[in-house]
Design a protein that fits this description.
By secondary structure, this protein is mostly helical. Helices cover about 75% and strands about 0% of the residues. The two termini are about 65 Å apart.
Length: about 850
Amino acid sequence: MLRRMFKNRDRQPAAESPRGAAAGQAAEPAPPESAQRPAAAVSLDDIHDVSELIEHVVACRGAAREEALQHPLLKQAAALTALEKRSRGKDKALNRHARRLLEQRKSLHQQADAGQARAQELADALRRPPPPVPDHAWRERQHELHRRLTEALDHHLELGNALADFGEAPPSLEALRPDPADLPELDPAAVTGEADDPADVTPETAADAGNAAPGEPFEPLVAAFEALDQAMAAGAPFADVTAERQALTERWLASADRRPPTQAQHQVFEAVSHRFRELADAVERLEALELPALPPQPLDLSDTGAPRRHWDAVSQRRELLGRLEKARRHIAWPEWAPPAAGHAELAQHIDTLHSELEAADRMLREQLTALDGELDELDRAIDAGSLNEARSLLAAARKRHDDLPPTAVRDAGRRLGKAAARLAELKDWQTFATTPKRQSLLEAMQALAASPLPPRDQAERIKELRREWQALGPVTQAADGRLADRFNAEAEKAFEPCRAHFAELAEERKANLQQRQRICDELQRYLAETDWARADMAAAQQIMRAARDEWRRFHPVDRQPGRAVEEQFESLQAQLHARVKAEWDRNLQAKEAIVAEARALLEGDRPVQEKINAAKALQQRWRSVGITPRRPDQQLWQAFRSACDAVFAARDEEKHAEQAAAEALEQRLTAALDDFAGRLDSADSTAVSDAELREFRRQTADIEGLPPGRRRTLEQRRSELAGRYTKLLAEQRQSQARAQLWAVKRWDETVAEAEAAGSVAAPVAADPEADQAVSEDVAAARRRSAGQAVPLEALRRLTVRAELAAGRESPAEDEALRLEVQVERLQAGLSGAGRGEEKPDALADEWCRLGPKDAAAAPLRERFFDALAALD
């Protein structure tokens, strides 16, 4: 993948040249006053500004730096961020220190946020109302929640102490700390063992822990996910993390199929899954990369044997650094996760290249400074007339110039050329002889003939040398005459490449002229052969414009023959333009008439819908009109559009009225929903009724009158509120059923006591107004008291039936009876004569009709009605 990323590297912007980085940057501002003083002379007690303290730390070394880094100001997030930026690329140790503290602070905040959510979740669970009949399991549960909440709050305090070192503190959670006095007492006789410590739950036993506590299957899974998150942050092997996360996710989803988790539990699951996905994507990108290796040998700029090769190596390393940094950005390794081996190797490569390039830049700046000094000395020697010294300095400057990268010495090269010209002028003035100058011009012409420049530059250079030769004056000596003959011969030889080039240009001008003549012939044939009575004028307009564009493309041409062809072209274009203009005029008149009709339509008193239909018809006519010139067409279009817009404004007013009505209806419905939501928030299952729900639905029945875009959100909210109210009604009915059940139990106990005493007690009715039910209870009590005591075996069998229906365990001594009842139920189901689903009220009625009962039936009564409560 890395190779694919680098295939287009030649199209990347070129890296900034070292010379540009050295010479083009602005001068840095002067450091603060404390930074200008020696670091040892500055006392930490005198520093109260963060920027001044950072400059002091950068300047210090050893023990002084360690002492300065303990300053309280450098523990704040803003100061650490400024320190990291200040030391970036300049001081690795200081930069790593700032980044480490910033990452530590970020991790503490993340842990504090997660701990706060966890503590709030435990506090909410601890405050839930008890069941109607609190049992031992509920009491144990309350004690376990109390212990976990206390541990979470203690851990949150530790995180707060750690964040205090950074001058920060998470919000206090002491208001959530439970009071031990509020805990219910445990029944010592029911305690069978110590509760499991959540800290002892491991990923391997998380599923077993969930099965052991069916009431809360997600708590051990949440702890396991949090442990997995800590393992990822600690750099655990990714294969182990992947396997562990897969196993936990499968158990989580299996538990979610049975019952949904709470919002806080789901947030933990989502957060850990997101962090795992972030890490997995980074690992996948890292494994797909093929990191290019560093050059086999380190960059050694001390060898002066081949300096150009060194700068080529610097350029290669600069390109390689850009590729590696792009690869690191592509990997996007999470900041919270320790780097993997491949990512650490990439960072090491980048740091190595940064160090080598910084050394190369320093050396380049030194060489450029030395070159500027040599050029200054060369200018001084030329100004002083020291010819021999100037020659030596020029040679040395050229040698240094040639050893440096060309992109870094452009300015110095121009200075060097000017100095060389001044030196040559100095030589001419000192010798007062033209023969050496003529000899020099001859040599220059010979060199030009041997190594020609591009044709145009070659011709300009030949002209320049001839001008310099002529400026020397007429030839007066035989030796100069022979030099002149040789100079002219060399000039002819040097002009040969130019002659061929100019011949090619002549052929190009000839071909362009032929193409222009072809355009004229095609235009003339088009004008002659077209039936203008039925011509496509849009095509004619396009041909007129395309011919002009193509004409401009064939340039240049020879002046004299080109002028005649240009006159022919303009004449043909004028004829074609006259045809097109006539069509323009006709179409402009048609559009002017349409504009007049639109204005008259606006001023008329016809109904709005008729105006709109007429305006649409005018728009269709407008589109059917042919070609027109651009500017007049735009002016007419603006007038036509203005008239049509005014016609459509009436329709818009109607739409606005409908929209206002919809908004008013939406506001009224929103107010009704808000009012119902407010009453629902303060209501419980004892204060709800079906009538109130029907009234709410009646008040919001006209929600169908809203547009779909406005209706969707309100319908969702109405459905959600109705669902919540329906849930309260279901809770109310369940509470009433349980109250009726306990009333039946009390009735049975009262009647049993009366039966034991030889009399029938007054029955206990669930509803005092239900006279008929009371009469039936009296009759049932008398029938029971008239008979013999019911056998305990019948009551035990009825109790086992209730426990089987409720899914509750029976005592060990009733296992055989339980198996017998199960077999009976199975046989009855296979024969089609089964009892069907056991109903609590039917079982309770069957129990009450059995009697009389003595005191031995009391334990069975407790078991029986506890099972009915669970079945309900």
